[in-house]
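Recap quiz, item 2
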Amino acid sequence: MSVQYFDAKGDFDKDFGTPKSQSTELVSLEIDGQTVVVPMGTSVLRAASEIGIQIPKLCASDNLEAFGSCRICAVEIEGRRGTPASCTTPVEAGMKVTTQNVRLGKLRRNIMELYISDHPLDCLTCPANGNCELQDMAGAVGLREVRYGFDGENHLDAPTDSSNPYFSFDASKCIVCSRCVRACEEVQGTFALTISGRGFESKVSPGTEQSFMDSDCVSCGACVQACPTSTLMEKSVIDQGQPEHSVVTTCAYCGVGCSFKAEMKGSELIRMVPYKGGEANMGHSCVKGRFAFGYATHQDRVTKPMVRDSIDQPWKEVSWDEAFNFAASKLKGIQQKYGRDSVGGITSSRCTNEETYLVQKLIRAGFGNNNTDTCARVCHSPTGFGLKTTMGESAGTQTFESVLYADAVMVIGANPTDAHPVFGSLLKKRLRQGAKLIVADPRSTDLVRSPHIQAEQHLKLRPGTNVALINALAHVVVTEGLEDKAFVESRTEGDSYMRWRAFISDVRHSPEATEEITGVPAEKMRDAARIYAAADNAAIYYGLGVTEHSQGSTMVMGIANLAMATGNIGRKGVGVNPLRGQNNVQGSCDMGSFPHELPGYQHVSDPVVRARFESVWGVQLDEEPGLRIPNMFNAALDGTFKGMYVQGEDIAQSDPNTAHVEAALRSLECLVVQDIFLNETAKFAHVFLPGSSFLEKDGTFTNAERRINRVRKVMPPLAGLADWEATMGLANALGYPMNYSHPSEIMDEIAQLTPTFTGVSYDRLDELGSIQWPCNDAAPEGTPTMHVESFPIGQARFAITEYVATEERSNRRFPLLLTTGRILSQYNVGAQTRRTENQNWHDEDILELHPVDALDRGISDGDMVAISSRVGETVLHARVSDRMQPGVVYTTFHHPNSGANVVTTDNSDWATNCPEYKVTAVQVTKVTGESNWQQQFRQFDEKQKEFLADAKREEHV
Amino acid sequence: MESHQLTSMISMANQIAANLPHDQSQDECDKAVASHLQRFWSRGMKEQIRAHLAAGGEGLSEGAKRALALI
């Protein structure tokens, strides 16, 4: 099977047997008479492979350290006794290696003979047929007979474990090469697998002889990918057979942006295999990206455009043109009646850059206002604001791989092993190598303590006190003389530094003065600050636990201050790293989704910038910022905002204060929703434009490292049009012409108008594999590490970060603080993952609370509890957990009927309006039935599903 | 009729005034708040809150009022 898209950087389909050596020192040796020069530390097996000599191997794989168990890769080395395994033998200068002769051939055949004497000979009906390394090696060594026969003691009747929904474990096919066990350790870092027993009894065992589902296995699939036989095999391959072609594309789940080979038969997707050439994931993946793609062809997909005059009416299926004209005439009518600013739209952080760009262009040029926003409003808008204010660019500073060079890592308000699992694995790998870890989180996340991982310090702070904490850390750095003075002097603005230094040195920021606020003992804060400041390379990774607060922007600036004061910017292993939530949330921000910024973070008030866009777009642009999402909702409730175009976002579920959002959506006269499913928001819509999944279109996603990755179409759009084509149709119906024949033309326009993208094109992306922006004349191959020589604003600026307590405080009525988050198996609002077997891991959102709080309220595990805040109430099942601290409760928001956001308030970040999801004062009480909101939700949901069914029935009449 | 937008803008303006740095002169601080509103709020929102200020500015903090007078 071949990869269709050539990647200039290397042969990523080939397995070189052992990992690449990172040494810069070169060694010359001779293999079968050929001279080969390789880095020191390279194995003989890999050195041979580099010159095209494939020594047979079974237990070796180039994503795992050499193990030397199968011995089939044995070679002869001049001057050495015996036949060493080439995988575990490093090259030496002047070495003379023979990889094949009569003796070695016989030795390998003998080994294969032993393997095959205890292996089923059902090759023709075996799922690995056509892609089995054992079969290949039997062929390679020339195995012709098995003299031992097959009647001896064997494992042929060993049972199959089918407990995992995505793969099966057929122990009868196992050759105990330990590749799966090593993948689980080295690649994933979960240590769920082991070899139990000794000698002939040795067998692969999940946990302590548990089933895969009952074990600690996180279903990342690294073991399945590592297995050389059909022992660990995707059920999709067992059912459908081996794929026949593959296309390299980018995952549509989290902001890690993993590259995958979509392995296909025709236009049917058989399996997703992480692509070794993908620089974000380097061949690894998680349970969502590898396995949870079934949603793309789920029966719930809506594939026909639909319209209706009122949300109390059934849907009517129409042609694309009818839908475009219906939407355009309604939106134009609204503008005529209520004014130009009475409509707006939301771009998608799940769609491609090109699609996002088109939606904001349609709004700015077609609607004639700047009422465009995106889901980043509710997640990382403070990152954009805070990093731009301090360092001059609205993005993280590093590559993911940079973490492998960090000596200390501080993780703040992020849970990477659940929300960014592939980065989580990379981080854990570095931690196992000895880097120190500091975790700042109200909860005990898996990172705090898990197999072979132990945080040096867990700063278990009270929700809402981040800024007090970061100020305390910076105070320690400054007052204990731990600053990097040379960096501060040369790279930062002197005045801002002196002001900040005077501010942060004040004793009110000391750990001792703030421990009452944060709840973190002063000594722990001091120790954490010292660990961070003393490390040669210290890196900060943060998530929504930083941004989704009333002081989200202040906290981001506080993080930047700390990194700048200690000189941890501008090289590998350091930096300020926001872990972005959705696949293209970085891209949607880059593409001008915000109401105040054109693509490339160029402010709408700048006449020079506007003139450039105006000349290409052929319209005059509004010089004033438009409405943000929460402003749109308020304007809708005030009756001044009446029409909305929402692409690929489910604001009715994901945005805070559901009752408020629903009331705003109900007040619209025309809501156009473009999505692959009839999501919660679409239930309030008048026009439904069927969306296309990431498998059905070309485009690009930009991940949290600013890496632009290609998305490649592997099947035709189920609804006939890709999302970018549907946006064009709507624009044209509105009278604003758009005529692109391929997304590459949209990217060319983006490159023309965005200074940080001028070097980006589809040709360049194919050539380089991926590009990290800025990519322009100054950086023609992109910019892996930002701010190496200077900042985009010259010198960076320190920001004053006064702690201002949130107005959302616990009191007698609402004595607990609710914080929300994510879980590994589900993604965001769950529209995708709930329609896959991932439901097996998490089929409802649960409220976690501390045993003390549970005892006070007479709550036990599994009880139904009402969570009420000043804006609403919802009911969930409870789980009593000492991961929580007393006074803090936690839930996820992956299921719409959970109503997690019925409870969250419309408090928001002062600078960006990013909602304060992470702090809501609540009370929790034991109840026996669902909440009023849940009952209404169920009725409304049933009604809207009937309306959808009506549209389909119509079709069949 | 109560305006959702106005209620929310009053608390946002107060929040911005409370969060922007106070280690500088009152003038500079007011300018910083005004500039933030200028750069991030829509035309309609600015008009609405200015009208509210003209009508007495109920609910607005002193800092927010001073800043709004500048835009």
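Chain B has four helices and no strands.
Residues 27-71 of chain B form one domain.
End of item.
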